[in-house]
Amino acid sequence: MKNIYFFILLSILSSTIEAKNISIDKIMLTGKVIDKETKQPLEYATVVVKSISNEIITGGITNSNGEFEIQIARGDYNISIEFISFKSKVFNNIDVSGNKDLGTVSLEMDAESLDEVEIIAEKSTVEIRLDKKIYNVGKDMTVKGGTASDVLDNVPSVAVDVEGNVSLRGNENVRILINGKPSGLVGLSGTDALRQLPADAIEKVEVITSPSARYEAEGTAGILNIILRKGKAQGLNGSINTTAGNPDNFGAAMNFNYRTNKVNYFTSTGYNYRNAPGNS
Question: Is the separation of the CB atoms in 132 and 222 below 8 Å?
């Protein structure tokens, strides 16, 4: 009977010692990641912990304050910190014998990757920048004889309902600019104006979901900046497009451009009629 009690006591002591060893071996790797230029914290930056032979051991991501906290065992590691459009920072052969604080890690913007990230599909490209996404209008996005509403409806995160109301990520409080400025064309009659602006006249659409202070409070959902296409050749040039379909669907668009060395005049007009299902 005494032997049984002895073995039970020995097992409890062994478990306690093992648990203490585990808690001692597991230590914390901490730090903070910021933008070197703006000094702002970088949320969702990736922290990768590798062995000396560069085998991935564990990792984590930064929180909204740019901070990270990763539990690891004692040892020597290679630690890399990465964030999209920024140059990675690597700490080689770091001796982690106790709680290790890497301090504030500044990441420098990678000019080559930031210049533009392009996804090519028949001339359509996407440029991803820190403050906005730019959708260049290509063949797959332009509805021949269509309108600006048709183009916006093809932009990810943007929706246009049957009445022509524009929303960004489900919010209709969107401010629409043309060539970076408020336009009388949009201000006088929003939905009708977009329907009268030919799709072929649009070169790209900038989607700004976090407007800076230079924009007014209106457009809390974001800003859609429509950049109009301009002819590159000098002299007078233009295009005329017509479409027709069944059921009742027809349209026409005309774009004219006159360019000299110093001055560029651009104008466009269009008409589109579409009898949507359910309309009388």
Answer: no
